């Protein structure tokens, strides 16, 4: 039988490792020298889109097919579209929809269809502020004014909605002149109101790019108060006369419920109460030189 044997020395005495002695000479690396040549172009800070006016395109006189800019031609300044508030104050009859689905596609379709405004309904619609924003984007793309109806008339909801930059805001369940004055105060910065200020970073001011926002927001924002109860109709002239209230929006469903006709909103007595409300607001409108408006809007999904 064959056997394998190992020399005893190879098992008992392992070889010693050999390390070279360290050198006493220090290694000095030369300091790196960097030189930057001046770039062939000048760096320029980009201007916000709102501050630029696009130059008109002109065909080049050369045989090239490229399109060149002709800077010698004066650039026309685009005329901003009139606000929803100014159009209503001028007596125009405008048509709009309530959007409860929070669908940006439906909002875009409404704008493309030619409606003058769309109410994004956060009171009875299922969405909140983050759901309303894409709808405002879609409406802005079609140059259609957006109105946000709040779920509750309070400063917190008003602040969050106004920061999105709608052209109008609607306060539900305004039953007295006192509540109407509070609603207006929620839309004004101090000292005229109690609205929280973040105008340098929110969409309403184009994220701080619109330098004229603080000077113009009061004149451009449409403030709407909803009258939705029998008691509120009795005070509707005083509600409409509150300084800052631009439009009274009736709530026929809640009005009928407050009158005991929840299951019969088309009851004759409800219709008569609606006529009383209309006369009250129109009478206030004449006394205040047309600054109080009556809104009659229809629902859509």
UniProtKB/TrEMBL annotation:
Domain HpcH/HpaI aldolase/citrate lyase: 95-289
One Pfam family recorded for the sequence: HpcH_HpaI
Gene3D superfamilies: Phosphoenolpyruvate-binding domains
Record bears the keyword rRNA-binding: no
Database matches in InterPro entries: Aldolase/citrate-lyase_domain, HpcH-HpaI_aldolase, Pyrv/PenolPyrv_kinase-like_dom, Pyrv_kinase-like_dom_sf
Chain segments annotated as coiled-coil in the UniProt record: none
Keywords associated with the record: Lyase, Metal-binding
Polar residues: bias regions: 1-13
SUPFAM superfamilies: Phosphoenolpyruvate/pyruvate domain
Region of interest: Disordered: 1-21
GO terms assigned for molecular function: lyase activity; metal ion binding
PANTHER family for the chain: 2-KETO-3-DEOXY-L-RHAMNONATE ALDOLASE, PHOSPHOENOLPYRUVATE CARBOXYLASE FAMILY PROTEIN
Family assignment from sequence similarity: Belongs to the HpcH/HpaI aldolase family.
Protein name: 2-keto-3-deoxy-L-rhamnonate aldolase
Source species: Vitis vinifera
High-level lineage: Eukaryota, Viridiplantae, Streptophyta, Embryophyta, Tracheophyta
Name of the gene this protein is made from: rhmA_1
